[in-house]
Amino acid sequence: MSNIFASRLKYAMQQRGITATELCDKTDIPKSAISQYLSGAFKPKQTRTYVLAETLRVDAAWLTGYDVPMERGLSSVDISAFDNIFPIEMRRIPLIGSIACGEPVYAGEEHESYILAGTDVKADFCLRAKGDSMTGARILDGDIVFVRRQDMVENGQIAAVIIGDEATLKRVYYYREKNLLILKPENPAYQDMIYSENELDGVKILGLAVAFQSDVR
Which of 43, 98, 113, 133 is catalytic? Predict the structure, then answer.
């Protein structure tokens, strides 16, 4: 399947007159990754496939190897006839590294890529979840978590939290009268992370988790 993707990607680039360098600039996908897609060494994940298809103005299903027209067009099925199917307007949100759903991980600020999300997702950036401590909230390892930047959240809300130079995703409970902060996982296999008094100086709320994106498993 990766060879089919590679051949169709090359063909689409030729038809649109776009070089690998130009495609890299337009999509913010690293040139090394574009080279791997063109060689057939790797096939991109769904989000990058959509970015490439959007940039090249081709059907994403065609690009991945399905027997459908290359040109994007209306489906033969009238989706307006279904009251539970809604059109989605997309925008790109920067993906900033990974965040731990377990033990904290280093909190980098370098943009790994961009993720397509509906315009109704009011987020400033997103992070890739690592670990299984938030499975009770249906956030699994590898999921994309969308975060709205803010320095305070309500008790019980899920937030991206910076601890020193590390980051984690947990449910937040702050008790002002006790000057006590509890970061709760959503998996009984993990213990609460508790901070009080001077320990709070090293803890910072990065933002509120407002949505997550998960592949069908």
Answer: 133
